[in-house]
Amino acid sequence: MLSIEERLKRHTRREGACLVWVAATNGRGYGQMRIHGRTVYPHRASYELVIGPIPPGHVIDHLCRNPLCVEPSHLEPVPMGTNSARGLRGFELTGTCRAGLHDMTDPANIMSRSDGRRQCLPCRRSFERRRPARLKRPRSGA
Fold first, then answer.
1. Can you tell me the mean pLDDT for 3-9?
2. What percent of the chain lies above the pLDDT cut of 70?
3. What's the pTM value of the predicted model, to 2 decimals?
4. Among candidate residues 3, 104, 12, 83, the one with its CA nearest the CA of residue 49
């Protein structure tokens, strides 16, 4: 059986500054893995493996805004309220997408959502490629 460190190495790849989880994900876009019979988030396992325990009452905030990133230097334990407030800023206030990989001033990288918000098109395409076929929504008009 592989150690947690070996599993993290096997199921990640470098994308820019991020170390991205490429294995199982949950329905909210976060990675997941099994450790000792429990489902855990790989970003939490990575943080605890490299940096140490997560303080009680804290969650891990992805400073890079990429929920699949397990790079310990991109992770910070914060209270839930702080994490929520930071998440509301999104990429609308910066020139890059939440993952920090794509220029959001380039119209070719922007996808308008039905709720009026912007979404990074290259990140969305990457997410869709990683999704299992059974979870993909059929295209409208097809």
1. 92
2. 83
3. 0.62
4. 3
CA distance 118 to 33: 30
* Residue labelled with tokens 């500054």: 17
Residue 82's identity, in one-letter code, is T
Q: Which residues contact 20 (CB under 8 A, 6 or more apart)?
A: 12, 13, 14, 66, 68, 69, 70
Query: Are 24 and 32 contacting, i.e. CB atoms less than 8 angstroms apart?
Result: yes
Give 129's Cβ-side CA count (13 Å radius).
7
**CATH architecture under which domain 1-89 falls:** Alpha-Beta Complex (3.90)
Q: For residues 70 and 41, give the distance between their C-alpha atoms in angstroms, rounded to a whole number.
A: 9
Q: Which helix (H) or strand (E) holds 10?
A: helix 4-10
Beta strands in the chain (DSSP E): 12-15, 18-21, 33-35, 38-40, 58-62, 75-79, 110-112, 118-120
In the chain, ranges of CATH 3.90.75 domains: 1-89
Nearest to 54 by CA among 29, 24, 32, 75: 75
pLDDT (tens digit per residue) in 28-56: 789 999 999 999 999 999 999 999 999 99
